[in-house]
Amino acid sequence: MKRAIVFLLLSIVFVYIRQDKAQRSITAGQRIIPVNSHYEGDIIEFVLRSNETGHTHSTIKQTIKRDGPCGNLLSNAHPLKRPCTPPIHYHLKQDEKFDIKQGRLGYILNGMNGTKETNESLFIPKSACHTFWSAGDDDLVVYITLYNDHGMVPGRSADSYFENINGVRRDSPSLIATLQVQIGHDIYRCDLPRLFNSMFSKLFQIVALALGYQIQYVEYTTPVI
């Protein structure tokens, strides 16, 4: 409880000092987008957008090059410190599935480490803490599907999340901007107290929004039909 209150107060102060004035790249409507601005090899491709599935689910294809900053071949960084590795997180309204098409997927699921090989799958139920990374010597190619719950906000489907979180990481890599996008798309960090996620996240969003931090940006977001 005390940690959550301190974090919220520090976040508000930080947001007040640093309003979001990033110069944004325009990637809305693109099928393929880069994961970061420093290395073009790691990409995300939208295989099925929410518009194309009746808003039931979205599927992306993520490629992590073996010799890039997120790969397992040359990187000296711990997998959790690589720029393509999501923070350990959970969803309240979405199940998730990983289908490994090439390479080896390393993952954490509810505190347990594991790997999945080519042609294997991994299912992540709602509320399960998880993350993933490339754990082999080949390029990792993985299809990621997020299934939208009926309680999802229209226009906040998985494709919107991937567009905006990768846009923020490229153009405005701050913790506040990242949290604003994550919370608005049913992504909750496991390194923050769940009390923060349940009680203070909405207040955090209001304060961040008032000072320029959006849940989704027109420069990144493909319009919902």
From TrEMBL:
Keyword vocabulary terms for this entry: Signal
Signal peptide extent: 1-22
Record SUPFAM superfamilies: RmlC-like cupins
InterPro entries: RmlC-like_jellyroll, RmlC_Cupin_sf
Name this polypeptide is given: Uncharacterized protein
Species whose genome carries this gene: Adineta ricciae (Rotifer)
